[in-house]
Specification:
- By secondary structure, this protein is α/β, with parallel strands linked by helices.
- The chain has one domain: Nucleoside phosphorylase domain (Rossmann fold, 3-Layer(aba) Sandwich), CATH 3.40.50.
- It is built from seven helices and ten strands.
- A hairpin with a 2-residue loop joins strand 3 and strand 4.
- The radius of gyration is 17 Å and the shape is globular.
- The chain starts with 5 loop residues before the first helix and ends in an 8-residue tail after the last helix.
């Protein structure tokens, strides 16, 4: 009996969840969680148009300095983020930058800061469907380096705090006990969020490129969080992260060490 190969049957055609088809997106895709944040990204693109909004997945495509760039919301958590990356790859996307929100795990990580992650501790279940236990979830070196270079250059004019290091990707927002948070902090992790480990893992297994930059929404160690009022520093950090990501794409596209390997 022939078993269904989902990857093979969905490649290069209209996608089931995102409702995208080849030609709808550029090779570079920014991945916020929230569909509303896709519209923030669109405002920093030229000629941005909404392609489709289905379920939690909103997609726009435009250009930045002549480079086609798309943005697709992933929803919350690794399962929906994994579907987004798989289906975007099926229609031609090759480079992904998660532009998200994150909680700080070290005392010096402040609300409104920007964090760029080099890897993620795999505390999710989704990535275990792709790789064995102990396999690292690592961002693409060259795309991440472009983010870091752009962030350093833009930091002077935009005045944000910047941190670079390893994150954790958890599955349960309300399951993060004080003991769990302490464990993450003691492992010297910079921050925790809910999507990177799947995005990094799937990109690696499919021969694609993925990186992540986040605005800090709160600090779980110092208990400096904003759960009810409008979090204006976080909103500002989203704008910073989007600007950094777009500049990084331009920088990456111009050529780097990777192109000389």
């Amino acid at each position: 009996m022939a078993m269904l190969d989902k990857s093979e049957i969905t490649k290069g055609r209209l996608q089931y969840h995102l409702r995208l088809k080849p030609g709808d997106v550029g090779k570079y895709v920014l991945l916020p969680g929230d569909p509303d944040r896709v519209l923030r990204i669109a405002r920093q693109l030229d000629d941005a148009k909404e392609v489709v909004f289905h379920r939690e997945y909103r997609t726009v495509t435009g250009t930045y300095r002549g480079i086609p760039v798309s943005a697709t919301s992933t929803g919350i958590g690794c399962p929906s983020a994994a579907i987004a990356v798989e289906e975007l790859a099926n229609v031609g996307a090759t480079h992904f930058i998660r532009v998200g929100s994150t909680g700080g795990l070290q005392p010096d990580v402040k609300i409104g800061d920007v964090v760029i992650n080099t890897a993620s501790m795999r505390n999710d279940g989704t990535s275990s469907f792709y790789v064995k236990a102990g396999f690292p979830a690592v961002a693409d070196h060259f795309l991440t380096n472009a983010l870091i270079e752009s962030a350093i250059e833009l930091r002077g004019e935009r005045d944000f705090g910047l941190h670079v290091g390893i994150s954790a990707s958890d599955d349960a927002f309300y399951g993060e006990t004080p003991e769990h948070i302490q464990m993450l902090s003691e492992h010297k992790l910079v921050n925790v969020e809910m999507e990177a480990s799947a995005i990094f893992t799937i990109a690696h297994m499919r021969g694609l490129k993925a990186a992540m930059i986040c605005g800090v929404s709160g600090n779980l160690v110092t208990a400096d969080v904003v759960y009810e009022d409008e979090n204006k520093p976080l909103i500002r950090s989203w704008e910073d992260a989007i600007a950094i990501s777009l500049d990084a794409i331009y920088r990456y596209e111009q050529g780097s060490l990777e192109s000389r390997l």
